Amino acid sequence: MKVLAAMSGGVDSAVAAARAVDAGHDVTGIHLALSRNPKSYRSGARGCCTIEDANDARRAADVIGIPFYVWDMSDRFHADVVEDFLAEYDAGRTPNPCLRCNEKIKFAAVLDRGIALGFDAVATGHYARLERGPSGLVEIHRAVDHAKDQSYVLGVLTQDQLAHSMFPLGDTTKPAIRAEAERRGIAVAAKPDSHDICFISDGDTGGWLAEKLGTDAGTIVDQAGQVIGDHDGTYRFTIGQRRGLRLGVPAEDGRPRYVLDIEPATQTVTVGPRSALAVDAITGVHPRWCGAAPAGELRCTVQLRAHGEEHPAVVRVEAASLRIELLEPAYGIAPGQSAVIYDRTRVVGSSTIAQTYATAHI
Amino acid sequence: MAHVVAVNRRTTLVDAMTTHSTEPRQIVYLDHAATTPMVPEAIAAMTAQLSHLGNASSLHGSGRAARRVVEESRETIAQALGARPSEVIVTSGGTEADNLALKGLYWQRRAEDALRTVVVSTAIEHHAVLDPLQWLAAEEGADVRLLPVDRDGRLGVDALEALIDAEHERIALVSVMWANNEVGTIQPIDDVVRMAAAHGIPVHTDAVQAVGQLPVDFAASGVDALTLTGHKIGGPYGVGALLLGRDVEAMPLLHGGGQERDVRSGTLDVPAIAGFAAATELAAKRQADHGVALTALRDELVARVQQVVPDAQLNGPADGGRLPGNVHLSFPGCEGDSLLMLLDAQGIECSTGSACNAGVPQASHVLLAMGRDDATARGSLRFSLGHTSSRSDIDRLGVAIGPAVQRARAAMPTGTPGDSR
Question: Of A98, A101, A290, A300, which is the active-site residue?
Fold first, then answer.
């Protein structure tokens, strides 16, 4: 197959490209330039959009012995990922831009362009496994390295996208990938993992949002509505957040307080005890199914944030939405994040969390 | 696994260097404006010097021998380009020569008269000119005026004349390229010199693309400073020259041992200079025939491409007003970098002809200055011919370009961003 290997400049995508070559594919490396002004995103080893990262990707392609190009996806990335990220925070939600990028850029804009140019698939360094299921559909499963598993951020991919994807690292652990990179002579073998949001170079999401959205002061109140602090923008908060609240008045019971609710319309952030974070029902919008859309009721597990735990649940699928009932309460569930639905290791699909509920029985 | 690893480890410079010769498929190299293969005479002249000892500044026998090679090379270069030997300032290449001319002349002219802060140039210069000018504006108080060009990329001399008439007392220098590197448009250097010389204003020209393709005679041209570089004319990388009129003073960029008229210090690279001289001599000697041959190939290339892709638009003049080896085409509905990749995959090497920002092709400032829109500018390719080009290169391109354009068109994003797959 003719394969496009998306190379970020990190160790994972470099080994993924090398493995695609070993598997006998005709591989071309591409680095996605996602910033309109790469110089402004310069950030050492942190991100994936710096000139250094592009150079690291180029060097890895040299070592692997494949052609390499930089594709400018900055306009699409800005429109589909960055603007969405800003709008979501502005609306009091907590988006995950990686899912959005996978849905709209890597496995959509890049894949479409690749297919038009004569390629058959996009390979990335995500930790996930693809398998051909009994029905003939491509299934996406958790990676064998559960600590590194990235199936959560791939939960937005449809069958059409999965059919043109390759994840060559899903059967290996991260330490083994680093060792393999070392053996292959890929210079970025020791490069630290990127954890932060790639377009926020210094990792200061609050500061970046403040720069883009401006300050918009408001109050922090307790559950009784008593003002106990202030803030300069609701976008600095996430449901379940405990640190950085800068509350002047200590809680009566001396226990830590958490963000319970964010209301951008009134600039109000409500805080309270951890017990008040408990939710046992979730409505989701924008459902995406990796295979055929399930109907009716689904007994499954759901993962409600990146690297979060799995919660046993019953999912009721409706037309353009779904309702998730958790068998045990979950804490700190933020609207805007994705609920990714699993059947054991298999990803069934995903949905963006719209609202959370604590029903009577908690 | 261990075996694979060992092989990969050895995939180093040796493989990189031999890729072209071991490749079963012949590379179609249509990027001579980026760099052109060294001619055998230059390789011979250069390698002959590699084993010789001697710093050309030393006074002993070895030094004298090295010095002799340098001075003979200087005489050869001067002779080939209508300059005096003392007018040849050897540099590390075109970029350094441009920097030396612009900064050196600006500083010198301003030191003589503090009023002279205006630098006149064009909107289509190479970045080796535009960026030093931008730096002079930001750091040295220069008042940079970039004159517009017409749709063919040619400087409008009326605007230049008006500017010189109005402000000649404040003008430190004028810099206009001899021929454009992207679209090949030859600039009206005679007019520029005539207008500037009337007021004693020095003229610099970047002739990197012109030497070897057009007749270039330094003295006859009347320019005060002229940039050329080795690797565009069949010589080695890393060596070039600024031809600087013997009466023209320029402040140095590099201070040190006082080599090169005290304008460009640094121990001379004897082998590179010898190779550069051999290449310059041949380029000048062969220029007339080379120009005729390239022009024929060039026109054939344009015709072949337009036969397959009728809406491909030639940028720059179609006639004698362009470099013999330059073809620059816009392919409506295509991304230039898609086309480049598709052709590259078949061993056909060309250029989007524009500067890169982290490897991302930016819309060319030259095409934008010529009044093209962003999409047209990004949908363009430069094919540049040189001394190894042949009809078979054009045949290969003629076969490949149609399907490549078809694919590149299909790959253009149709929907607006936000459309879901």
Answer: A101
